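Now for my pick.
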Amino acid sequence: MATTNGNNGDSNNKKIRYSDIPDKNEIGNLGKIMGGILLILFTITPLFFIIALWPDRMPTAKDDTQLYINRLFHVAISQQGTLHINIIMFLLVALAGFTGNMVHVATSFTNYVGSEKFKRSWLLWYFVKPFTASAVAVIFYLVLKAGLLNFDGSNGANPFGIVILSALAGLYTDKAMLKLEEIFVIIFKPKDDRPDKLETELKITGITPQTIEKDKENSYVVAGENLDKVKLGLFINDEPVANPEISATTINFKYTIPETQRDKTEFLFVIKDEQGQPKFQQALTLSNDTLNNLNFPADKEIPSSIEHHDESNISNQPPANPPPNIR
């Protein structure tokens, strides 16, 4: 008689833990090695060409030409040259920006791979970023050349300073773009102080009435300026107000307290913009008629704010023991 082995098939029936399932967005060991090799290659290559294209000296006022011999590792100024100094500087700037950003990309890649958090979905960013940084460096160079640096050859511009600034622009691309944005705003968006300019800023001055009744439909009017210039949302206790009538100076709407909020005694009216940011808020208090009609159970303590005091037993005589400060 054959006996069954309780351990048969255990290796085939092992449960696979969720943590053992490979993430398709993760990069494998081969990808990590290839990524490291490519980073080294794309960092060394622009450095190679920066050194190879470096001019022997900048042209001065004594030179009759600004042309250079177009030969790697021997870019010398010469009457027989075919490469202009401006072309050389553009190439050096672009290569320096590319190199600077490769430092940033390599640092980011190694940090994320080392912490096992690198995702393949970021590969496109790592590929495109150095090229955009190179373009930012060129734009930054043009801005500097237009206003801060002199390249006419009379003063002999320093290529070391230009390449360093370009590499820093590539290394800190985001900060360089913020600086370019600042320059753009200063040049193209001056402060408008015209007294007769059209006002487009949203202004909300208030809502009337500022009370609410539970047993009837409430009508409200919101006053302000340019109310129809932006998309607004109206809410009472986080419940949207339906079908408001919006014009440039007023918002008219009607609101009836829903059954789910009948037991509430506080109501907050809020106006939000399209991004959900509050632009105005006002607390709506219950009207006096509503407060007078509130029914409190017999076993509940009557709130002190509306408690009725019986003054029939209050004596007109002073207290037997007055406070110490008036004895």
Summary: The chain has two domains: 25-188, 203-293. Residues 24 and 305 are 65 Å apart (CA to CA). Helices lie at 29-52, 85-114, 123-147, 159-171, 173-188, 288-292.
